[in-house]
Amino acid sequence: MNKREFLKYSSYLIGGTFIGGNTALSIPSFAEMTGRKKQNGKIVLKYNPYTLQLKHTFTLATSSRTTTPVVLTVIEYDGIRGYGEASMPPYLGESQESVMKFLSLLNLSQFSDPFLLVDILEYVENVMPGNYAAKASVDIALHDLIGKLVMEPFYRLFGLNPAKAPLTSFTIGLDSPEIIRQKVAEAEPYKILKVKLGRDNDREMVEVIRSITDKPLCVDVNQGWKDRGMALEMAGWLKEKGVVFLEQPMPGEMKDDIAWLTERSPLPVIGDEAIRNVKDIMENKDVYSGINIKLMKCGGLNAAMKMINVARAMGLKVMIGCMTETSCAVTAAAQLSPLADWCDLDGNLLIANDPFDGLKIVDGRVTLPERSGIGARYMYY
Ligand code: MG
Fold first, then answer.
1. How far apart are the CA of 141 and the centre of ligand 1, in A?
2. In CATH, what number is assigned to the domain containing residue 110?
3. Mean pLDDT in order along the chain per 10 residues (381 residues)
4. Three-state secondary structure along the chain?
5. Which of 46, 111, 113, 313 has a 20 to 30 A CA-CA distance from 219?
6. Is the domain of 147 the same as that of 254?
7. Cα 257 to averaged position of ligand 1 atoms, centre (Å)
């Protein structure tokens, strides 16, 4: 008997009991009806380091790299596995060592019920400050586990319509014109491209892309510009080049300059590196037009949902992004995509050794898998 048949049968029994006034009818438990035996009623956390090999050297305004360290997590309960991931881009200050150290401090077996998500995440949050990628790896695995236990995709438990997922962009890093042409060709299924700027050849980069495609662009400067006058001039030029928005044009500390730019810019200005959590949104509410939410910055789906609600209450645009990470964390973030104005969920496509299968991009939009939990399938079991 599957879950739906069980629920139908249970409600029939309840209805029968109510109408007939016969209290002698007993309702069997879920375990009795499904035949699933409780293994030990304990939540068990396991984790392993993994190194992502990038398809292309990933160059930003401030760094360049060919690998990204991650830690993959598994939370087991009642014979069911929930998968999670911590991805550590250099600027967040976490490493495989720090994530595994943090995870080794957790005692999730003290909880007998994974549905106590709020209690468990509150415990995890208070074990040590910071460590948000590590915390995200627990949050994602728990959401995956809960979805699998009730046999529903998590977006359905959030009450979200997957058909409302916005267009998602594909990132083109800083590179030679030849490689840029190759990357633009790879980005064929995407209807928006994201270009990384912030060096001395910004206009050349945009011109090269424009010579190949007229798709809308979004621009991420990764804090690379330092002069607000120049940033405003660039914003005007980029608008003419079909750019949709401008992400983190200057360092987060240059609040007054960014607020000045946002007031005058013909393009919306989105905060990324400067916005990690709800407190950052409150402190920057007059600085940006919108925010880029990433699970690795905020600590997972639970925190991301709070950020979306706060940002919307303040009239800010919402973008959902990711780091270079496997289809596990990217598909988890995608569960929230129907709530966003824009998505930038291509981190899994930038790597050559993705051990998960998850979201797909169809006609430029995020298409969520119809699988329980966060919808990512580990391909080695
Ligand atoms: Mg960014």
1. 25
2. 3.30.390.10
3. 52 44 51 52 94 83 82 96 94 93 97 95 97 98 97 96 92 80 85 91 91 93 96 98 97 98 98 96 96 98 98 97 96 97 91 95 90 94 60
4. CCHHHHHHHHHHHHHHHHHHCCCCCCCCCHHHHHCCCCCCCCCEEEEEEEEEEEEEEEECCCCEEEEEEEEEEEEEECCEEEEEEEECCHHHCCCHHHHHHHHHCCCHHHCCCCCCHHHHHHHHHHHCCCCHHHHHHHHHHHHHHHHHHHCCEHHHHCCCCHHHCCEEEEEECCCCHHHHHHHHHHCCCCCEEEEECCCCCHHHHHHHHHHHCCCCEEEECCCCCCCHHHHHHHHHHHHHCCEEEEECCCCCCCHHHHHHHHHHCCCCEEECCCCCCHHHHHHCCCCCCEEEECHHHHCCHHHHHHHHHHHHHCCCEEEEECCCCCHHHHHHHHCCHHHCCEEECCHHHHECCCCEECCEEECCEEECCCCCECCCEECCC
5. 313
6. no
7. 18
Neighbours of ion ligand 1 (CB under 5 A): 220, 247, 272
Single out the residue in 151, 184, 219 at which a domain terminates: 151
Domain that holds residue 232: 157-378
Distance 194 CA to ligand 1 centre (A): 10
Distance from residue 293's CA to the centre of ligand 1 (Å):
10
Give the Å distance between the CA of 308 and the centre of ligand 1.
Answer: 17
Question: Rounded to the nearest whole angstrom, what is the distance from the C-alpha of residue 215 to the centroid of ligand 1?
Answer: 19
